[in-house]
Amino acid sequence: MSTMPEHNTQAERLISHLRERVGGALNDAAVCVTGGAGIIGGHLCDALVSLGARVTIIDDLSNSDTRHIGTLIDRAPERVRFVQGSILDPKALDEAMDGASRVFHLAALGSVPKSVEQPERTWLVNATGTMRVLQAAQRAGAGRLIYSASSSAYGNNPALPKRETMAPEPESPYAAAKFAGESLCRSWAKCYGIDTISLRYFNIFGTRQAADSAYAAVIPAFIKRWVDGQAPTIFGDGE
Fold this sequence. Notes:
42% of the residues lie in helices and 14% in strands. By secondary structure, it is an alpha/beta fold. The chain has two domains: 199 residues, NAD(P)-binding Rossmann-like Domain (Rossmann fold), CATH 3.40.50.720; 29 residues, no CATH class. The chain has a six-stranded parallel β-sheet, sandwiched between helices. Helix 3 links the parallel strand 2 and strand 3.
């Protein structure tokens, strides 16, 4: 599996910036990260540990592996714990969230093309799974949950820049399920008092990101083709 090269300078700048903004708010805080073995989750866990948090990662490893988790545990064994399990399993979630004051929910079944192939599975993991994460956070008494949503909620609306006030236009099973997760977060905030925040990611890229998967993100896929001396594959007219 090809991955993007590792560079620490940008990460170090980010941690320095976060320390200035967050201060000691996360020092010794108990935090649960779903999907913490993935590309975004792994970098998030790096940052949380650097900020002094005690981090529990829950991941079923369906889209990742334990290599980075092992490195993180070696770095801070007293502050990193790993639970291998699914967000569809309430018992695994309860184990991971025991004592957590904050939850970062990143676990998901990604890819629009994959969602077209597997719509029911996509809904089960991304929508029902998000509800079960919210229920577990509620049982654990967590005060805040940050949800990794998706810019796919905007659909093909050509208006720029994108604004959160735009009417959602999800156009795939993936987009519909991820947007349903946003709605569930709003419902749990209103009905159960959990502070929730949804972040709509666009094209993310960074170190440790797979570049040769059939579902690789566009930026690492383009970079790999350039490195291999090939032109990037563009679908459509490029406009």
